[in-house]
Amino acid sequence: MIQDTPKEPIVLIPADRFFLQLVPLESGAPASDQVALALEGLSPFPLVQMYHGFVADTAGTRALAFACYRRRFTAEEQAGWPEAAAVVPDIVALLGPAPSAPTVVVHVAPGQLLGAAWDGRRTLPVAVRAQVPLGDAAAAEGALVEELKRAASLDAPKVSRIEGPITAEWNDRAEAAFRVEKSETLRLTPVALAGADIRDKSFLEEKQFRRKQDRRWWGAAVAAVAVLAVALLIDLTAGGYALWNRRDQSALAAHAGEVKSIETAQTMAMRIEQLSVRQQRPLEWLSAIGTARPRSVQFTRVVGRNDRTLEIEAQTTNANDVGVFEAALRKLPNLDHVEIRDLRAREGMTSFVVALAFKPAPATATGGEGQP
Q1: pTM of the model
Q2: Each residue of 323-369: pLDDT tens digit?
Q3: In this structure, are residues 36 and 47 in contact, taking their beta carbons and an 8 Å threshold?
Q4: I need a labelling partner for 185 at 20 to 30 A (CA). Which of 52, 179, 254, 350 fits?
Q5: DSSP 8-state code for residue 150
Q6: Helix (H) / strand (E) containing 255
Q7: How many Cα atoms within 13 Å fall on the side-chain side of residue 49?
Q8: Of 160, 62, 170, nearest in space to 114 by CA
Q9: What is the pLDDT of residues 89-142, one digit of tens each?
Q10: Domain 282-358, second-level architecture
Q11: Rounded percentage of the chain residues whose pLDDT exceeds 90
């Protein structure tokens, strides 16, 4: 079924700024978690200080992960990121289509070389590279081809050289279509595109939550308009009937009562929906996470960002307790997301920020407005 095409743009950024790594995946665990663990083991920086994402193959056995230290991007370069549908490295366009024979694909552009080596069997390359050519451009291109051959253990692969701008746009099926020049190379579903998005994961979760809220309110508005249209139709029908026969005033009153019942039912439905997504209060949140807090950790500031997230500024005299605290938080069943960031050590005191997102808590039969 054809879906509404998103209007937000897809931003492509040069892949030569990123560390690229092919990561094996195992069934039974989310690919995003496995990629995060692999990057944490490979990078000298904490994961919260990096922009990162991945693209998995169709079988779910391998993924190309990419990560970059956040400070490599200036504020001016990130100015348009919040309004974008996704921000991904341009090398994603070289992840398809998968050739049926050993092949090395090289994309040549001013100031950048991209390369991917395929073994002819898998749906992802077995080696990828992105670099800024130095010195003679032809020599740099030849060196890149040889490096990909060695990395992929290919003896005599076909070498395909492509040029032209890399773009990404939405097609009429709400898929992200990547193109080199005018030739389409890869399609990603919205879910796969979200995995490739390098932006801060807490920002993406909040953006997705706001989008769901907007859709919910839009649905409520459409329902309200429908009720008003029904009410207007009933009023017009009742008014016309009254002009023809003044004696049928009782029928007009019955229609008015029907309109009132519809409005009451709609109001009750909206109220039930609001109660169904009602979240815990900050005091309940603090009580829930208090059991996981080591004794050395002190909360200095607590801020509720929206109706399901909490941001806590904390400090401790024992830096090891930060990791202990994070591990204990991840075990709490009512937490949907945990992120530790802004770690700072000064004069024997370690300060940090804990960003928490709680799972939606459905309202109980005894829930009401007066509960804390």
Answers
A1: 0.55
A2: 888 888 888 887 888 899 888 888 889 999 988 888 876 544 444 44
A3: yes
A4: 52
A5: H
A6: helix 249-276
A7: 12
A8: 160
A9: 999 999 999 999 999 999 999 999 999 999 999 999 999 999 999 889 999 999
A10: 2-Layer Sandwich (3.30)
A11: 48
3-state SS assignment for residue 297: coil
CA–CA distance, 192 with 176 (Å, rounded to integer): 9
Tokens of 89: 């490295």
Location of structure tokens 């992929």: 152
What distance in Å separates the CA atoms of residue 81 and residue 95, rounded to the nearest whole number?
23
Report pLDDT digits (tens) over 154-208. Answer: 999 999 999 999 999 999 999 999 999 989 999 999 999 999 999 988 767 676 6
Q: Which tokens hold the place of 145? A: 């081809």
Strand order in the sheet with 127-131: 127-131, 112-118, 103-109, 158-163
Bond preceding residue 97 cis, omega within 30 of 0: yes
135 contacts: CB under 8 Å, gap ≥ 6: none
Answer for the pair 331, 292: CB distance below 8 angstroms, yes or no. yes
| One-character DSSP codes across 167-196 | EEEE-TTS-EEEEETTEEEEEE-HHHHHHH
Mean pLDDT of 16-23: 94
12 contact partners, CB below 8 Å, separation of at least 6: 88, 89, 90, 92, 93, 166, 167, 168
Match 């050739």 to its residue by tokens. Answer: 99
pLDDT above 50: residue 371 = no
- Residues composing the chain: 372
Output the furthest CA–CA distance in the chain (Å, rounded): 97
Question: What span, in angstroms and rounded, lies between the C-alpha atoms of 259 and 304?
Answer: 40
Number of CB atoms found within 10 A of residue 241's CB: 15
CA distance 33 to 201: 12
**Tokens encoding 61:** 């056995």
